[in-house]
Design goal:
mainly alpha, two-stranded antiparallel sheet, about 5% strand
Amino acid sequence: VLKKHPGSEVIKKRKYYATVWKDAWDVAEYVGKNFERLYGDTKKFHDAFFSSTMPGYVLEAVSATMTVLRSPTCFRLEDGTLMAWEGCFRDEGCCEGNCTHVFNYAQTTAFLYPDLERSMRRVEYFVETRPDGKQNFRSYQMFYGMEGQDHRPAADGQLGTVIRFYRDWLICGDEDFLRTFWPKVKSTLDFAFSYWDKDGDFVLDSDQFNTYDIAFEGPNSMVGSLFLGALKAAEKICAHLGDRENERRYAEAFRKGSRRLDKMLFNGEYYEQKTEDVDRVRYQYGKGCLSDQLFGQTLAHVAGLGHVLPAAHVKKGLRSIFRYNFRRGFADHMNLQRTYALNDEHGLVLCSWPHGGRPKIPFPYSDEVWTGIEYQVAANLIYEGLTDEGLTLVRAARD
């Protein structure tokens, strides 16, 4: 049962499985009649997956994260739309509405069940994108029939969704999907030029609300690399559609933005955040080494877009993330937030300040260990040929 505004009527919606079977007994009969096929197909998938030459802990990691799809975290509405929480407890979900900046980190659905993934794009672009291009990063309207989320836009979620749309088009090859969605997708990308790039230099610099539940003020490569990946995807889409004017516009923005961001933020080891006074606004990271500093590069690699920043600097940045943020023990690590790693466990902290300059009040989660970020960094390391380092992160997470 999904409720509208207080005092209004109650809307009853069924889960998708209720459109296939009338009750639990019907399900049991179906399984009984089709058991050999269902079991046989399941075993074929299992045997094919686990016969891979990938290290066992990598296969275990992927197979374990796959199961989120059949947990209470995810569910399908009556029309087949996939909806999800950020996670779930024993008796309730946490953080509703297909959060775009959280699902930036998820890749399984797109490659295993691409039609389900595309249903999430439909919600993002045709339900939660406003006429001015602002995209609500949580879909309240699918849950409650409300007006929509009244919150500032999430820069990382909105820009990452553009790259994921391009990825989804490559996977399905559906021309109608591309042409139907592109005007909406384009509006969310063009929104960035006016909302997050106040000085018009193609480097985002203001109010970049993100997955850490705060906003970065000033140029940073986490959101900046996502912008560059989105520009590169848009350039390729416009080339395919024969829109030469916008193809040139996005190509110029990418070229100038990539060069400026690299010159502005790369310190010889990794990409920093540019801010004149890191303590003027709370929850920044300044001279810190952020584990997500090249997140846009990860998504660009997954989508086959190539490098969005100089390859040599990307590799140096990733080496620095592994060098400075991977800890082999947490007995002497101070963390005032949630504890996800402790004692002799190994893990990748979200940020470190190897050369000093830690803000008085850095972004709240900076000392935590998030496996989702560990996996994206591991993937990026492997894309860049730093396979041992990438596998070390995965093994540490599974241990």
